[in-house]
Amino acid sequence: GEDVEQSLFLSVREGDSSVINCTYTDSSSTYLYWYKQEPGAGLQLLTYIFSNMDMKQDQRLTVLLNKKDKHLSLRIADTQTGDSAIYFCADFHTGRRALTFGSGTRLQVQP
Amino acid sequence: DADVTQTPRNRITKTGKRIMLECSQTKGHDRMYWYRQDPGLGLRLIYYSFDVKDINKGEISDGYSVSRQAQAKFSLSLESAIPNQTALYFCATSDPRSRETQYFGPGTRLLVL
Question: What is the pLDDT of residue A3?
Answer without folding.
Answer: 86
